């Protein structure tokens, strides 16, 4: 078992309701998107050896856990989230020996490694699916197969089993000529959904998970794990199928209805997750398991992460990162601090007594927060807003996640042409919404892609100011798989590493606080002012120790709200300032004037 380089929270301090306290209660997780982190062989794609070569950087940051996005064998239709062999490393990323070396070297530095697990679906090139294409095989029922509608020509429009559309565009049903039936895919047509109703599917998944755990990994982050259970009627038919007892919702403007209400947090999710816990984790120690949780709200998060229910340690909820989207992902709504506060309040209060929260604004599917909600128009605003949102995430109660480059204040890609994008979701969405359904103009769609496109988070890690940002050698035979952000000349790790005022230095302070302050890690959370348009303020309390966190999440000076000012009525001395996005002297002066500068965040000891 990996020994972490910091102390755990004493058991007399309550965390998630378990005894003893879990090791991850004051841990910080760092997500690596391998293809964009570090290329070691000049092929333009990041790899495992590259990650191993950068472990000292990760150790210096102080994080406890690496979450590794998929490196399994894959056709790379969805950048590795379409797995063709769970027990092999894709040659793009290296070999199993490279994976073993990464584990060994990370563990030697006191860093745990969890792997991304994608078991809602596989690749259509997986051996399971290939066998399932034979209706007489033992795996015939391992996926969601359905015949064409009666009286319709198989493979022609209108013959699909129901009207569901894929989240990646087009129908959620793909006709397979070999089997003569359709298979269901919530995502790409190369990502058929596994049928978790079949116990043999679940058994095979658990065997694979145990194989990895036995190899020494420290747990899993589980992709869209709350979509493994689908709503079916008493005869096993999906909503909207001919003869189904359950009606589908009407089709939307793009011509499809959504499977989301019937495939997210379905009726057997708790049963499946509890079974997984028993079969894979129950007799092990030192692990963590976190689930990506489409369709799960704050109250359900409390239930699933309650240790008494023995399901998952924590979940990623998405209600707070949808506050700037309208009826579709590509409908841009202006950021409003009040909406963010409302969502995070629900998440924090839901786990007040039991369960745990995952804290994040960025990951491989979410755009860079400094461009999305902050301000990257000037260097000063970029740095201050990056620190402000870092403080927001890391001062809440739960386990914080840092996405690679977030600790540098990396920005969105600012692409202006569709040809610059590589993400299947973005390319398909443009075709479906602009070219086919004509529900959005090309100009507004490009604006939406610039705001929400997943490639904004996937440009190469910015290590230095050289030609390819140090991601790959300047004279490498191949260019990076996606363009390096031109601002890497100014924004990079080398420029920030020894700068005490850098975003990187600020993130080191956040990690250190999480490790060494039980108030930050496990103290009670309480909102102070609930309707201010700029300042987000809350307290963290543990026994007699109390901290006030106040963050101006706007690019203008803001008055401190009334209740916040009341808590500061006796004034604040410099030695009471625990952390500031500016500095202690500046923040003491701001508080004395009853205001905060643009993007100013302050933590004070009350």
TrEMBL record:
SUPFAM superfamilies linked: (Trans)glycosidases, Glycosyl hydrolase domain
MF annotations from Gene Ontology: alpha-amylase activity
GO BP term, pick one: oligosaccharide catabolic process
Keyword Hydrolase on entry: yes
One matching Pfam family: Alpha-amylase
Keywords linked to the UniProt accession: Glycosidase, Hydrolase
InterPro entries to which the protein is assigned, alphabetical: GH, GH13_cat_dom, Glyco_hydro_b, O16G_dom_2
Residue stretches making up the Glycosyl hydrolase family 13 catalytic domain: 31-458
Recorded superkingdom: Bacteria
Record bears the keyword Calcium: no
Family per record: Belongs to the glycosyl hydrolase 13 family.
PANTHER family, per the entry: ALPHA-AMYLASE FAMILY MEMBER, NEUTRAL AND BASIC AMINO ACID TRANSPORT PROTEIN RBAT
Record protein name field: Alpha-amylase
Organism whose genome encodes this protein: Bifidobacterium pseudolongum PV8-2
């Amino acid at each position: 078992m990996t020994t972490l380089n910091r102390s755990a929270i004493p058991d007399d301090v309550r965390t998630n309701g378990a005894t003893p306290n879990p090791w991850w209660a004051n841990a910080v997780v760092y997500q690596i998107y391998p293809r964009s982190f570090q290329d070691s062989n000049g092929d333009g794609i990041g790899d495992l050896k590259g990650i191993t070569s950068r472990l000292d950087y990760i150790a210096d940051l102080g994080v406890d856990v690496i979450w590794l996005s998929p490196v399994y064998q894959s056709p790379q239709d969805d950048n590795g989230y379409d797995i063709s062999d769970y027990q092999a490393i894709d040659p793009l990323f290296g070999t199993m020996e490279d994976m073993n070396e990464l584990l060994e070297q990370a563990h030697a530095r006191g860093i745990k490694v969890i792997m991304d697990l994608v078991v809602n679906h596989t690749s259509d090139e997986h051996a399971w699916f290939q066998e399932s294409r034979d209706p007489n095989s033992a795996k015939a029922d391992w996926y969601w197969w359905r015949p064409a509608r009666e009286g319709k020509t198989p493979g022609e429009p209108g013959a699909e089993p129901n009207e569901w559309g894929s989240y990646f565009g087009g129908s959620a049903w793909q006709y397979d000529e070999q089997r003569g039936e359709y298979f269901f895919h919530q995502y790409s047509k190369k990502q058929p959904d596994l049928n978790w109703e079949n116990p043999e599917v679940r058994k095979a998944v658990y065997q694979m998970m145990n194989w990895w755990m036995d190899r020494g990994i420290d747990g899993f982050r589980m992709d869209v794990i709350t979509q493994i259970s689908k709503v079916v009627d008493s005869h096993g038919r999906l909503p909207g199928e001919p003869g189904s007892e359950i009606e589908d919702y009407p089709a939307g403007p793009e011509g499809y209805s959504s499977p989301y209400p019937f495939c997210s947090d379905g009726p057997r999710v708790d049963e499946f997750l509890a079974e997984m816990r028993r079969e894979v984790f129950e007799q092990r120690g030192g692990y963590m398991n976190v689930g990506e949780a489409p369709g799960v709200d704050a109250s359900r998060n409390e239930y699933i992460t309650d240790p008494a229910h023995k399901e998952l340690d924590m979940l990623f909820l998405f209600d707070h990162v949808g506050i700037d989207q309208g009826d579709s992902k590509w409908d841009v709504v202006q950021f409003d601090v009040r909406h963010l506060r409302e969502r995070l309040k629900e998440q924090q209060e839901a786990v007040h007594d039991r369960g745990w929260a995952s804290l994040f604004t960025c990951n491989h599917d979410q755009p860079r927060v400094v461009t999305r909600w902050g301000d990257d128009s000037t260097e000063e605003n970029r740095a201050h807003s990056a620190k402000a949102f870092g403080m927001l995430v890391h001062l809440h109660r739960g386990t914080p996640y840092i996405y690679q480059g977030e600790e540098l204040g990396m920005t969105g890609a600012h692409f202006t042409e569709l040809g610059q994008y590589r993400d299947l979701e973005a390319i398909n969405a443009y075709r479906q919404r602009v070219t086919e359904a004509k529900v959005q103009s090309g100009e507004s769609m490009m604006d939406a892609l610039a705001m929400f496109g997943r490639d904004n988070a996937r440009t190469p890690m910015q290590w230095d100011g050289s030609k390819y940002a140090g991601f790959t050698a300047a004279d490498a035979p191949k260019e990076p798989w996606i363009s390096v952000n031109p601002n890497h000349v100014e924004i990079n790790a080398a420029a920030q590493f020894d700068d005490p005022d850098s975003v990187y230095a600020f993130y080191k302070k956040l990690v250190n606080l999480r490790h060494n302050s039980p108030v930050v890690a496990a103290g009670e959370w309480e909102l102070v002012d609930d309707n201010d348009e700029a300042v987000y303020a809350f307290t963290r309390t543990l026994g007699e120790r109390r901290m006030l966190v106040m963050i101006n999440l706007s690019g203008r000076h803001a008055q401190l709200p009334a209740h916040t000012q009341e808590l500061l009525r006796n004034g604040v001395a410099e030695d009471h300032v625990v952390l500031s996005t500016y500095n202690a002297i500046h923040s003491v002066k701001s508080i004395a004037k009853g205001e905060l500068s643009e993007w100013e965040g302050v933590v004070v000891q009350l």
